[in-house]
Design goal:
By secondary structure, the protein is α/β, with parallel strands linked by helices. Helices cover 46% and strands 17% of the residues. The protein folds into 3 domains: 2-22 and 234-362, 3-Layer(aba) Sandwich (Rossmann fold); 25-228, Nitrogenase molybdenum iron protein domain (Rossmann fold, 3-Layer(aba) Sandwich); 394-425, no CATH class. It has 17 helices and 14 strands. The model has no long low-confidence stretch (mean pLDDT 96).
Length: 426
Amino acid sequence: MLYRKLSELTDEEREKLIGRGGGDLADVGEKVAAILRDVKHNGDSSLREYTKEFDGVNIEVIEVSKEEIDEAANSIDPELMEHLEFAAGNIRKFHEAQMPKKMWFIEVSPGIELGQKFTPLESVGAYVPGGRASYPSTALMTIIPAKVAGVKNVVMCTPPGKDGKVNPLTLAAAKVAGADHVYKLGGVQAVAGMAYGTESVMKVDKIVGPGNVFVTAAKMQVRDKAEIDFPAGPSEVLIIADDSCNARMAASDMIAQAEHDPNSVSVMVTISKKLASDVRNEVIKQAKETLRKEIVETSLKNAAVLVADSIDECIEFSNEFAPEHLEIMVKDENYVLEGIEHAGSIFAGNYAPVPVGDYASGTNHVLPTAGYARIYSGLNLAHFMKSSSIQRMSKQGLETLKDSVIALAEKEGLKAHADSIRLRFE
Protein backbone atom coordinates (compact mmCIF):
# COMPACT_ATOMS: atom_id res chain seq x y z
CA MET A 1 0.00 0.00 0.00
CA LEU A 2 1.36 3.37 -1.06
CA TYR A 3 1.60 5.90 1.80
CA ARG A 4 2.77 9.29 0.66
CA LYS A 5 2.25 13.03 0.53
CA LEU A 6 0.26 13.71 -2.64
CA SER A 7 2.68 16.37 -3.89
CA GLU A 8 5.60 13.94 -3.49
CA LEU A 9 4.24 11.18 -5.73
CA THR A 10 6.67 10.26 -8.47
CA ASP A 11 5.46 10.41 -12.06
CA GLU A 12 5.47 6.61 -12.12
CA GLU A 13 3.41 6.33 -8.92
CA ARG A 14 0.90 8.91 -10.12
CA GLU A 15 0.57 7.22 -13.51
CA LYS A 16 -0.02 3.83 -11.86
CA LEU A 17 -2.88 5.31 -9.82
CA ILE A 18 -4.47 7.40 -12.57
CA GLY A 19 -3.90 4.81 -15.31
CA ARG A 20 -5.06 1.80 -13.29
CA GLY A 21 -7.21 -0.71 -15.10
CA GLY A 22 -6.71 -4.19 -13.75
CA GLY A 23 -5.56 -5.57 -17.07
CA ASP A 24 -4.80 -4.38 -20.55
CA LEU A 25 -7.57 -5.03 -23.08
CA ALA A 26 -5.01 -5.23 -25.86
CA ASP A 27 -3.26 -8.14 -24.14
CA VAL A 28 -6.35 -10.36 -24.41
CA GLY A 29 -7.74 -8.96 -27.66
CA GLU A 30 -6.65 -11.76 -30.01
CA LYS A 31 -7.79 -14.56 -27.71
CA VAL A 32 -11.15 -12.87 -27.22
CA ALA A 33 -11.58 -12.31 -30.96
CA ALA A 34 -10.95 -16.02 -31.65
CA ILE A 35 -13.64 -17.09 -29.18
CA LEU A 36 -16.11 -14.57 -30.59
CA ARG A 37 -15.54 -15.86 -34.14
CA ASP A 38 -15.93 -19.46 -33.03
CA VAL A 39 -19.25 -18.82 -31.29
CA LYS A 40 -20.49 -16.70 -34.19
CA HIS A 41 -19.94 -19.58 -36.64
CA ASN A 42 -20.60 -22.63 -34.45
CA GLY A 43 -23.28 -21.48 -32.01
CA ASP A 44 -24.29 -23.74 -29.15
CA SER A 45 -21.56 -26.31 -29.72
CA SER A 46 -18.91 -23.65 -29.13
CA LEU A 47 -20.75 -22.34 -26.08
CA ARG A 48 -20.64 -25.82 -24.56
CA GLU A 49 -16.95 -26.32 -25.42
CA TYR A 50 -15.87 -23.05 -23.84
CA THR A 51 -18.03 -23.62 -20.76
CA LYS A 52 -16.26 -26.96 -20.32
CA GLU A 53 -12.84 -25.36 -20.86
CA PHE A 54 -13.24 -22.27 -18.68
CA ASP A 55 -15.85 -23.29 -16.08
CA GLY A 56 -14.99 -26.99 -15.90
CA VAL A 57 -18.54 -28.18 -16.42
CA ASN A 58 -20.55 -29.90 -19.15
CA ILE A 59 -23.87 -28.21 -19.93
CA GLU A 60 -26.31 -29.93 -22.24
CA VAL A 61 -29.19 -27.49 -21.85
CA ILE A 62 -27.98 -23.90 -21.94
CA GLU A 63 -31.14 -22.12 -20.82
CA VAL A 64 -32.28 -22.38 -17.22
CA SER A 65 -35.87 -23.62 -17.15
CA LYS A 66 -38.72 -21.79 -15.42
CA GLU A 67 -39.02 -24.78 -13.11
CA GLU A 68 -35.36 -24.49 -12.07
CA ILE A 69 -35.80 -20.78 -11.40
CA ASP A 70 -38.94 -21.35 -9.31
CA GLU A 71 -37.25 -24.17 -7.42
CA ALA A 72 -34.24 -21.96 -6.69
CA ALA A 73 -36.44 -19.10 -5.46
CA ASN A 74 -38.40 -21.46 -3.22
CA SER A 75 -35.16 -22.80 -1.71
CA ILE A 76 -34.06 -19.38 -0.46
CA ASP A 77 -34.63 -18.52 3.18
CA PRO A 78 -37.81 -16.39 3.33
CA GLU A 79 -36.08 -13.66 5.35
CA LEU A 80 -33.32 -13.42 2.73
CA MET A 81 -35.97 -13.20 0.01
CA GLU A 82 -37.53 -10.29 1.88
CA HIS A 83 -34.17 -8.49 1.85
CA LEU A 84 -33.82 -9.19 -1.88
CA GLU A 85 -37.30 -7.82 -2.57
CA PHE A 86 -36.65 -4.77 -0.35
CA ALA A 87 -33.51 -3.96 -2.34
CA ALA A 88 -35.38 -4.55 -5.60
CA GLY A 89 -38.10 -2.13 -4.49
CA ASN A 90 -35.60 0.67 -3.84
CA ILE A 91 -33.81 0.04 -7.13
CA ARG A 92 -37.14 0.13 -8.96
CA LYS A 93 -38.17 3.42 -7.29
CA PHE A 94 -34.88 5.14 -8.12
CA HIS A 95 -35.02 4.14 -11.77
CA GLU A 96 -38.72 4.94 -12.13
CA ALA A 97 -37.83 8.48 -11.07
CA GLN A 98 -35.52 8.69 -14.10
CA MET A 99 -38.31 7.95 -16.61
CA PRO A 100 -38.56 10.74 -19.21
CA LYS A 101 -41.82 11.87 -20.80
CA LYS A 102 -42.69 9.38 -23.53
CA MET A 103 -43.12 12.29 -25.95
CA TRP A 104 -42.85 16.07 -25.75
CA PHE A 105 -43.11 19.10 -28.04
CA ILE A 106 -42.12 22.75 -27.96
CA GLU A 107 -43.24 25.47 -30.37
CA VAL A 108 -40.13 27.25 -31.65
CA SER A 109 -42.12 29.61 -33.89
CA PRO A 110 -45.66 29.77 -35.32
CA GLY A 111 -46.35 26.60 -37.26
CA ILE A 112 -43.19 24.76 -36.13
CA GLU A 113 -43.24 22.20 -33.32
CA LEU A 114 -40.15 20.23 -32.36
CA GLY A 115 -40.09 17.31 -30.00
CA GLN A 116 -38.72 13.96 -28.91
CA LYS A 117 -40.15 10.48 -28.57
CA PHE A 118 -38.54 7.96 -26.21
CA THR A 119 -38.75 4.26 -27.01
CA PRO A 120 -37.35 1.30 -25.06
CA LEU A 121 -34.94 -1.09 -26.73
CA GLU A 122 -36.52 -4.38 -27.81
CA SER A 123 -33.97 -6.71 -26.21
CA VAL A 124 -31.18 -6.40 -23.65
CA GLY A 125 -28.63 -8.88 -22.33
CA ALA A 126 -27.51 -8.60 -18.70
CA TYR A 127 -24.13 -10.08 -17.83
CA VAL A 128 -23.90 -11.13 -14.18
CA PRO A 129 -20.41 -12.25 -13.07
CA GLY A 130 -19.68 -15.44 -11.15
CA GLY A 131 -16.43 -17.11 -10.29
CA ARG A 132 -15.03 -15.91 -6.95
CA ALA A 133 -18.48 -14.90 -5.73
CA SER A 134 -22.10 -14.84 -6.82
CA TYR A 135 -23.70 -11.48 -7.55
CA PRO A 136 -27.49 -11.57 -7.21
CA SER A 137 -27.31 -7.81 -6.61
CA THR A 138 -25.99 -7.33 -10.16
CA ALA A 139 -28.98 -9.25 -11.49
CA LEU A 140 -31.23 -6.69 -9.80
CA MET A 141 -29.15 -3.73 -10.99
CA THR A 142 -29.10 -4.77 -14.65
CA ILE A 143 -32.54 -6.32 -15.14
CA ILE A 144 -34.79 -3.99 -13.10
CA PRO A 145 -33.96 -0.73 -14.93
CA ALA A 146 -34.37 -2.50 -18.28
CA LYS A 147 -37.83 -3.65 -17.26
CA VAL A 148 -38.72 -0.22 -15.84
CA ALA A 149 -37.74 1.27 -19.21
CA GLY A 150 -40.12 -1.14 -20.94
CA VAL A 151 -37.67 -3.53 -22.63
CA LYS A 152 -39.69 -6.51 -23.89
CA ASN A 153 -36.98 -9.17 -23.71
CA VAL A 154 -34.34 -9.09 -20.98
CA VAL A 155 -31.99 -12.06 -20.83
CA MET A 156 -29.37 -12.83 -18.22
CA CYS A 157 -26.11 -14.73 -18.63
CA THR A 158 -24.15 -15.93 -15.62
CA PRO A 159 -21.56 -18.71 -15.21
CA PRO A 160 -22.64 -22.10 -13.84
CA GLY A 161 -20.99 -23.67 -10.82
CA LYS A 162 -19.12 -26.96 -10.88
CA ASP A 163 -22.44 -28.77 -10.47
CA GLY A 164 -23.65 -27.23 -13.73
CA LYS A 165 -26.23 -25.09 -11.95
CA VAL A 166 -26.56 -21.34 -11.44
CA ASN A 167 -26.33 -20.02 -7.90
CA PRO A 168 -29.88 -20.25 -6.44
CA LEU A 169 -29.83 -16.71 -5.01
CA THR A 170 -28.81 -15.30 -8.39
CA LEU A 171 -31.71 -17.15 -9.99
CA ALA A 172 -34.04 -15.86 -7.29
CA ALA A 173 -32.83 -12.32 -8.00
CA ALA A 174 -33.41 -12.82 -11.73
CA LYS A 175 -36.98 -13.87 -10.98
CA VAL A 176 -37.62 -10.92 -8.65
CA ALA A 177 -36.15 -8.54 -11.24
CA GLY A 178 -38.27 -9.97 -14.08
CA ALA A 179 -35.76 -11.66 -16.41
CA ASP A 180 -37.37 -13.31 -19.44
CA HIS A 181 -34.58 -15.83 -20.09
CA VAL A 182 -31.57 -17.02 -18.08
CA TYR A 183 -28.58 -18.78 -19.62
CA LYS A 184 -25.84 -20.80 -17.90
CA LEU A 185 -23.02 -18.95 -19.62
CA GLY A 186 -20.11 -16.82 -18.48
CA GLY A 187 -17.10 -15.06 -19.91
CA VAL A 188 -16.46 -14.21 -23.55
CA GLN A 189 -18.75 -16.99 -24.76
CA ALA A 190 -21.71 -15.40 -22.94
CA VAL A 191 -21.07 -12.04 -24.60
CA ALA A 192 -20.73 -13.77 -27.98
CA GLY A 193 -23.97 -15.69 -27.51
CA MET A 194 -25.93 -12.54 -26.69
CA ALA A 195 -24.30 -10.47 -29.45
CA TYR A 196 -24.69 -12.96 -32.30
CA GLY A 197 -27.50 -15.25 -31.13
CA THR A 198 -27.30 -19.05 -31.25
CA GLU A 199 -29.76 -21.96 -31.40
CA SER A 200 -30.44 -21.49 -27.66
CA VAL A 201 -29.45 -17.89 -26.90
CA MET A 202 -31.50 -14.90 -27.98
CA LYS A 203 -29.65 -12.18 -29.86
CA VAL A 204 -29.94 -8.84 -28.07
CA ASP A 205 -29.64 -5.19 -29.07
CA LYS A 206 -27.50 -4.19 -26.09
CA ILE A 207 -25.32 -5.89 -23.47
CA VAL A 208 -24.88 -4.42 -19.99
CA GLY A 209 -23.11 -5.46 -16.83
CA PRO A 210 -19.61 -5.71 -15.35
CA GLY A 211 -16.98 -8.37 -15.87
CA ASN A 212 -13.28 -9.16 -15.94
CA VAL A 213 -10.86 -7.96 -18.62
CA PHE A 214 -11.96 -10.75 -20.99
CA VAL A 215 -15.64 -9.85 -20.68
CA THR A 216 -14.88 -6.15 -21.09
CA ALA A 217 -12.74 -6.82 -24.18
CA ALA A 218 -15.49 -8.99 -25.64
CA LYS A 219 -18.10 -6.28 -25.09
CA MET A 220 -15.87 -3.74 -26.81
CA GLN A 221 -15.37 -6.06 -29.80
CA VAL A 222 -19.04 -6.90 -30.49
CA ARG A 223 -20.28 -3.32 -30.77
CA ASP A 224 -20.94 -3.76 -34.49
CA LYS A 225 -23.65 -6.28 -33.55
CA ALA A 226 -24.82 -5.19 -30.09
CA GLU A 227 -24.29 -1.90 -28.27
CA ILE A 228 -22.88 -1.95 -24.74
CA ASP A 229 -23.18 0.23 -21.65
CA PHE A 230 -19.49 1.07 -21.03
CA PRO A 231 -16.25 -0.65 -19.98
CA ALA A 232 -16.69 -1.90 -16.41
CA GLY A 233 -13.79 -3.68 -14.76
CA PRO A 234 -12.44 -4.27 -11.23
CA SER A 235 -14.11 -2.24 -8.49
CA GLU A 236 -12.53 0.86 -6.96
CA VAL A 237 -13.11 3.53 -4.33
CA LEU A 238 -11.60 6.96 -3.67
CA ILE A 239 -12.22 8.55 -0.28
CA ILE A 240 -11.85 12.29 0.32
CA ALA A 241 -11.56 12.94 4.05
CA ASP A 242 -10.72 15.49 6.72
CA ASP A 243 -10.33 15.09 10.48
CA SER A 244 -14.10 14.60 10.90
CA CYS A 245 -13.73 11.19 9.24
CA ASN A 246 -13.82 8.05 11.37
CA ALA A 247 -10.59 6.15 10.65
CA ARG A 248 -12.01 2.68 11.34
CA MET A 249 -14.97 3.33 9.03
CA ALA A 250 -12.77 4.61 6.22
CA ALA A 251 -10.40 1.65 6.58
CA SER A 252 -13.28 -0.81 6.52
CA ASP A 253 -14.55 0.79 3.29
CA MET A 254 -11.13 0.30 1.70
CA ILE A 255 -11.12 -3.33 2.80
CA ALA A 256 -14.65 -3.76 1.43
CA GLN A 257 -13.47 -2.67 -2.02
CA ALA A 258 -10.31 -4.74 -1.78
CA GLU A 259 -12.24 -7.98 -1.17
CA HIS A 260 -13.96 -7.71 -4.57
CA ASP A 261 -10.99 -8.67 -6.70
CA PRO A 262 -7.17 -8.82 -6.59
CA ASN A 263 -7.19 -5.96 -9.12
CA SER A 264 -9.51 -3.71 -7.10
CA VAL A 265 -8.22 -0.27 -6.15
CA SER A 266 -8.76 1.54 -2.82
CA VAL A 267 -7.44 5.08 -2.33
CA MET A 268 -7.83 7.72 0.36
CA VAL A 269 -6.74 11.34 0.00
CA THR A 270 -6.95 13.49 3.12
CA ILE A 271 -5.76 16.78 4.56
CA SER A 272 -5.11 15.16 7.96
CA LYS A 273 -1.72 13.50 8.57
CA LYS A 274 -3.03 11.85 11.72
CA LEU A 275 -6.05 10.44 9.92
CA ALA A 276 -3.83 9.13 7.13
CA SER A 277 -1.62 7.32 9.63
CA ASP A 278 -4.62 5.95 11.57
CA VAL A 279 -6.34 4.70 8.41
CA ARG A 280 -3.17 3.05 7.14
CA ASN A 281 -2.74 1.22 10.45
CA GLU A 282 -6.40 0.22 10.52
CA VAL A 283 -6.27 -1.12 6.96
CA ILE A 284 -3.29 -3.30 7.84
CA LYS A 285 -5.03 -4.53 10.99
CA GLN A 286 -8.40 -5.24 9.36
CA ALA A 287 -6.77 -6.97 6.38
CA LYS A 288 -5.38 -9.62 8.72
CA GLU A 289 -8.84 -10.33 10.13
CA THR A 290 -10.97 -10.36 6.98
CA LEU A 291 -12.46 -13.53 5.52
CA ARG A 292 -11.14 -13.05 1.97
CA LYS A 293 -7.66 -12.31 3.29
CA GLU A 294 -5.69 -13.55 0.27
CA ILE A 295 -7.68 -11.44 -2.21
CA VAL A 296 -7.59 -8.39 0.07
CA GLU A 297 -3.82 -8.54 0.61
CA THR A 298 -3.21 -8.80 -3.14
CA SER A 299 -5.61 -5.94 -3.85
CA LEU A 300 -4.01 -3.69 -1.22
CA LYS A 301 -0.84 -3.64 -3.32
CA ASN A 302 -2.89 -1.29 -5.54
CA ALA A 303 -4.07 0.82 -2.58
CA ALA A 304 -2.86 4.23 -1.47
CA VAL A 305 -3.28 6.64 1.45
CA LEU A 306 -2.28 10.13 0.36
CA VAL A 307 -1.94 13.41 2.26
CA ALA A 308 -2.91 16.63 0.48
CA ASP A 309 -2.32 20.24 1.48
CA SER A 310 -5.94 21.31 1.03
CA ILE A 311 -9.44 20.07 0.27
CA ASP A 312 -9.16 21.74 -3.14
CA GLU A 313 -6.11 19.58 -3.87
CA CYS A 314 -8.14 16.51 -2.84
CA ILE A 315 -10.93 17.53 -5.23
CA GLU A 316 -8.46 18.16 -8.04
CA PHE A 317 -6.91 14.71 -7.56
CA SER A 318 -10.35 13.07 -7.44
CA ASN A 319 -11.34 14.65 -10.73
CA GLU A 320 -8.11 13.44 -12.29
CA PHE A 321 -8.67 9.95 -10.86
CA ALA A 322 -12.37 9.88 -11.92
CA PRO A 323 -13.36 7.11 -9.49
CA GLU A 324 -16.07 4.52 -9.88
CA HIS A 325 -17.09 5.13 -6.25
CA LEU A 326 -16.35 8.39 -4.45
CA GLU A 327 -16.84 8.66 -0.69
CA ILE A 328 -16.88 12.17 0.81
CA MET A 329 -16.12 12.10 4.53
CA VAL A 330 -15.60 15.77 5.40
CA LYS A 331 -17.29 18.48 7.47
CA ASP A 332 -18.49 20.46 4.43
CA GLU A 333 -19.84 17.82 2.06
CA ASN A 334 -21.54 20.33 -0.21
CA TYR A 335 -18.29 22.19 -0.92
CA VAL A 336 -16.70 18.96 -2.15
CA LEU A 337 -19.82 17.87 -4.04
CA GLU A 338 -19.88 21.14 -5.96
CA GLY A 339 -16.28 20.64 -7.03
CA ILE A 340 -16.64 17.05 -8.23
CA GLU A 341 -16.86 16.65 -12.01
CA HIS A 342 -16.01 13.00 -12.64
CA ALA A 343 -17.39 10.16 -10.49
CA GLY A 344 -19.55 7.12 -11.14
CA SER A 345 -21.48 7.17 -7.86
CA ILE A 346 -21.00 9.51 -4.89
CA PHE A 347 -21.46 8.62 -1.20
CA ALA A 348 -21.59 11.59 1.19
CA GLY A 349 -20.96 11.25 4.92
CA ASN A 350 -19.51 8.77 7.43
CA TYR A 351 -22.75 6.79 7.23
CA ALA A 352 -22.93 6.40 3.45
CA PRO A 353 -20.47 3.58 2.68
CA VAL A 354 -20.22 2.11 -0.82
CA PRO A 355 -21.96 -1.19 0.13
CA VAL A 356 -25.30 0.61 0.54
CA GLY A 357 -25.16 1.44 -3.15
CA ASP A 358 -23.92 -2.05 -3.97
CA TYR A 359 -27.05 -3.61 -2.54
CA ALA A 360 -30.04 -1.72 -1.26
CA SER A 361 -30.12 2.09 -1.38
CA GLY A 362 -31.52 1.98 -4.90
CA THR A 363 -28.78 3.67 -6.95
CA ASN A 364 -27.16 1.49 -9.59
CA HIS A 365 -23.88 -0.27 -8.86
CA VAL A 366 -22.94 -0.95 -12.49
CA LEU A 367 -20.49 1.90 -12.94
CA PRO A 368 -17.58 2.97 -15.16
CA THR A 369 -14.17 2.07 -13.72
CA ALA A 370 -10.52 2.78 -14.57
CA GLY A 371 -11.15 6.50 -15.12
CA TYR A 372 -14.03 5.99 -17.57
CA ALA A 373 -16.25 8.05 -15.24
CA ARG A 374 -14.67 10.99 -17.05
CA ILE A 375 -16.76 10.18 -20.15
CA TYR A 376 -19.46 7.68 -19.11
CA SER A 377 -22.41 7.74 -16.69
CA GLY A 378 -23.29 4.80 -14.48
CA LEU A 379 -26.05 2.46 -15.64
CA ASN A 380 -29.39 4.29 -15.71
CA LEU A 381 -32.70 4.27 -17.52
CA ALA A 382 -31.29 6.12 -20.54
CA HIS A 383 -29.11 3.09 -21.31
CA PHE A 384 -32.26 1.12 -22.11
CA MET A 385 -34.01 3.70 -24.25
CA LYS A 386 -33.45 5.57 -27.48
CA SER A 387 -34.89 8.87 -28.62
CA SER A 388 -36.26 10.04 -31.95
CA SER A 389 -36.49 13.72 -32.78
CA ILE A 390 -39.76 14.96 -34.25
CA GLN A 391 -40.58 17.99 -36.34
CA ARG A 392 -44.19 18.88 -37.02
CA MET A 393 -45.00 21.98 -39.09
CA SER A 394 -47.62 23.74 -41.12
CA LYS A 395 -47.11 25.47 -44.48
CA GLN A 396 -46.74 28.73 -42.57
CA GLY A 397 -43.98 27.16 -40.46
CA LEU A 398 -42.17 25.79 -43.50
CA GLU A 399 -42.32 29.19 -45.15
CA THR A 400 -40.25 30.70 -42.34
CA LEU A 401 -37.51 28.14 -43.03
CA LYS A 402 -37.82 28.03 -46.83
CA ASP A 403 -35.23 30.59 -47.86
CA SER A 404 -32.58 29.36 -45.43
CA VAL A 405 -32.97 25.70 -46.41
CA ILE A 406 -32.90 26.43 -50.15
CA ALA A 407 -29.83 28.68 -49.85
CA LEU A 408 -27.84 26.21 -47.76
CA ALA A 409 -28.86 23.18 -49.85
CA GLU A 410 -27.82 24.85 -53.10
CA LYS A 411 -24.54 25.97 -51.55
CA GLU A 412 -23.83 22.31 -50.80
CA GLY A 413 -24.73 21.33 -54.35
CA LEU A 414 -27.84 19.39 -53.31
CA LYS A 415 -30.38 20.84 -55.74
CA ALA A 416 -32.99 18.12 -55.10
CA HIS A 417 -33.02 19.11 -51.46
CA ALA A 418 -33.83 22.67 -52.44
CA ASP A 419 -36.44 21.53 -54.98
CA SER A 420 -38.28 19.48 -52.35
CA ILE A 421 -38.93 22.76 -50.55
CA ARG A 422 -39.73 24.87 -53.65
CA LEU A 423 -42.37 22.50 -55.06
CA ARG A 424 -44.45 22.90 -51.90
CA PHE A 425 -44.95 26.58 -52.78
CA GLU A 426 -45.58 26.25 -56.52
